[in-house]
Amino acid sequence: MLLIDQIAEQHIQAAIERGELEDLPGSGKPLNLDDDSQIPAELRAGYRLLKNANFIPPELKMRREIRNLEDLLEQLTDAPARNRTQARLTLLKAALEKRSKGESMVLQEALYRQKLVKKMCSE
Q1: Does residue 119 sit in helix, strand or coil?
Q2: Backbone phi, psi, residue 54, to 5°
Q3: How many C-beta atoms surround the C-beta of residue 107 within 10 A?
Q4: Is residue 8 part of a domain?
Q5: Is residue 1 a part of any domain in this protein?
Q6: For residue 60, what is the enclosing H or E element?
Q7: Host domain of residue 70
Q8: Is the separation of the CB atoms in 51 and 97 below 8 Å?
Q9: Calpha distance 28→118 (Å, rounded)
Q10: What is the tens place of the pLDDT at every residue in 19-68?
């Protein structure tokens, strides 16, 4: 589990213990995953089309594979397998960084994560 995930989980558990997450609006009701009210009207048709086609942006596919390789790397004990996995992971990270040069807000995650961790740790 990533550091940010651990910090977030600790804060969520603390809020649950303090009762801060009880009686929230919509509590106990299913999420409306088709709500597109926050998407600009001119983009809704395109977003819906991509969603219905199960499209995932390439950078998100790469991020998913990176996380899977990181998890796999923690479990591997065989040196040659670890080396191959580490090489693949390094290549994917480099490709993702190359793609991210000003192209996607999704890829600003690392900067956002750093700011979030700093803020959460200062509370």
Answers
A1: helix
A2: 55, 35
A3: 19
A4: no
A5: no
A6: helix 58-75
A7: 44-100+107-123
A8: no
A9: 32
A10: 888 888 888 888 887 788 888 888 888 888 888 888 888 888 889 999 99
